[in-house]
C-alpha cells in the first residue's frame, strides 16, 4: 500500500544512540561505532526497510477485511474486533516503515517496491479470505504493479523546495489552485451524491475518493516539514508560518480520516486483493500528478519520459479492466451456484 505521506526527516543514528554511551564510550569504541554505521549503506538499509514495510502493508487490507467479516457474522461492529485492529496497527507500522525507507533511500527505488505489498496481499487474501483470483485477475494484478513501477521510474523528479516562502509561492500558483478546487468539487460530488447511490456496486467510486485525497495528504505532509521550523522558531513571521502549519496539519488530518473511512467502506463490499491493486495504482498516479503541478515537475518532463508514462498508464488501465472482468466473472459464478443450490 502506498504511503499516506510523512515529512522528510534524515535520521541521525549517531546522535540518537549517543545517550546510551552514558559518557563511558572510549575512543576505540567510538571508532568501532563509526565503522559499524558506515559499513551499512543507507540505500541498502532503505531497500530492506521498504521491502519489510511492503509485506506489512500487504497484510493491512486482508486483516481489516477479515475483521469486518468476523464482526458481520457476530452481528456487531468491526471496531470491536481484534483482527480488524491488528490490520489497523499493521497500517500504522507500515507507514512508519515507509517514512524510514524514504529517508534512507531514493524515492525512485523505494516507491516501486510497494508493488510487493499488492502481490503479497493477493496471496494472503487467497489463503485467509479464500479470495481466489482466476488467470485474468492474476494477470491484471501483475499489470497494475508493472504499470505503477513504470510511472514511478519515469515520473519527473521534484525541484528542491527548501523554504516556507518557496512553498507559499507554489501553493498560491493559479494552476495548482484551480486543480485543488476541481478536486474538492469532485470529492464533494463523489462523497455526498455518487457514493451513497453507487458506492456499493462500483468499486471505482471508493477508489476515486481515496486516491483523490492523496492530492492533499502527500503535499501537506511534505509542507509540514518545511513550515515547522518557522512556525515555532519565533520572529515576526512566526504567526504567518504557524497559520500555514495548522492549515496543512488540519488538511492532512481530515484527508487521512476520510480516506480511512472509505477504505473500510470499500472492504465491506469488495474483495481486498482487487481493491488493494486498483487503489495502489490510482493513488500513485494521483500523487504523481498533484506533485507535478505543485512543484512544477512537469517543466522537466522529457519526451522519452512522457511516452514511458503513457505506456505505464495504458498498462495500468488494461490491468484494471482485467481485474474488473475477473471480479464480474466471479460474481456471476457465485450467483449461478446459488441458483443451483
TrEMBL record:
Biological process annotations from GO: axon guidance
GO terms assigned for molecular function: magnesium ion transmembrane transporter activity
One Pfam family of this chain: Mg_trans_NIPA
GO cellular component annotations of the record: membrane
Matches recorded under InterPro entries: EmrE-like (IPR037185), Mg_trans_NIPA (IPR008521)
Topology of this chain in the membrane: Multi-pass membrane protein
Locations listed in the record: Membrane
UniProt keywords, alphabetically: Membrane, Transmembrane, Transmembrane helix
Main location, first listed in the record: membrane
Superkingdom in the source lineage: Eukaryota
Transmembrane feature ranges: 44-63, 83-102, 108-129, 136-156, 176-196, 203-221, 241-263, 275-295, 307-325
UniProt record similarity statement: Belongs to the NIPA family.
Alphabetical list of PANTHER family matching this protein: MAGNESIUM TRANSPORTER NIPA1, PTHR12570
Name this polypeptide is given: NIPA magnesium transporter 1
Taxonomic placement: Eukaryota, Metazoa, Chordata, Craniata, Vertebrata
Amino acid at each position: 500500500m502506498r504511503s499516506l505521506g510523512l515529512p522528510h526527516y534524515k535520521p541521525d543514528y549517531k546522535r540518537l544512540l549517543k545517550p546510551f554511551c552514558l559518557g563511558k564510550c572510549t575512543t576505540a569504541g567510538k571508532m568501532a561505532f563509526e565503522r559499524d554505521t558506515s559499513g551499512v549503506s543507507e540505500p541498502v538499509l532503505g531497500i530492506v526497510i521498504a521491502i519489510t514495510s511492503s509485506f506489512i502493508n500487504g497484510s493491512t487490507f486482508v486483516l481489516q477485511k477479515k475483521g469486518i467479516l468476523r464482526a458481520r457474522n457476530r452481528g456487531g461492529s468491526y471496531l470491536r474486533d481484534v483482527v480488524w485492529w491488528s490490520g489497523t496497527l499493521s497500517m500504522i507500522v507500515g507507514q512508519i516503515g515507509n517514512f524510514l525507507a524514504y529517508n534512507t533511500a531514493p524515492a525512485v527505488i523505494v516507491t516501486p517496491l510497494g508493488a510487493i505489498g499488492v502481490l503479497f496481499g493477493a496471496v494472503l487474501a487467497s489463503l485467509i479470505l479464500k479470495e481466489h483470483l482466476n488467470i485474468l485477475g492474476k494477470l491484471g494484478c501483475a499489470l497494475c504493479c508493472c504499470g505503477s513501477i513504470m510511472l514511478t521510474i519515469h515520473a519527473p523528479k521534484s525541484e528542491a523546495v527548501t523554504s516556507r516562502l518557496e512553498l507559499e509561492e507554489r501553493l498560491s500558483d493559479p494552476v495548482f489552485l484551480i486543480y485543488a478546487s476541481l478536486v474538492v468539487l469532485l470529492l464533494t460530488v463523489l462523497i455526498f451524491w455518487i457514493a451513497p447511490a453507487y458506492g456499493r456496486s462500483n468499486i471505482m467510486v471508493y477508489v476515486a475518493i481515496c486516491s483523490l485525497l492523496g492530492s492533499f495528504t502527500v503535499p501537506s505532509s511534505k509542507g509540514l516539514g518545511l513550515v515547522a521550523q518557522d512556525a515555532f522558531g519565533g520572529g515576526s513571521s512566526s504567526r504567518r508560518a504557524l497559520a500555514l502549519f495548522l492549515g496543512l496539519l488540519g488538511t492532512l488530518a481530515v484527508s487521512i480520516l476520510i480516506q480511512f473511512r472509505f477504505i473500510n467502506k470499500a472492504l465491506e463490499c469488495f474483495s481486498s486483493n482487487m481493491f488493494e491493486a486498483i487503489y495502489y495504482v490510482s493513488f500513485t498516479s494521483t500523487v504523481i500528478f498533484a506533485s507535478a503541478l505543485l512543484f512544477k515537475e512537469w517543466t522537466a518532463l522529457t519526451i522519452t519520459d512522457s511516452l514511458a508514462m503513457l505506456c505505464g498508464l495504458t498498462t495500468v488501465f488494461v490491468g484494471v479492466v482485467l481485474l474488473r472482468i475477473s471480479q464480474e466473472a466471479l460474481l456471476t459464478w457465485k450467483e449461478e451456484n446459488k441458483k443451483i443450490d
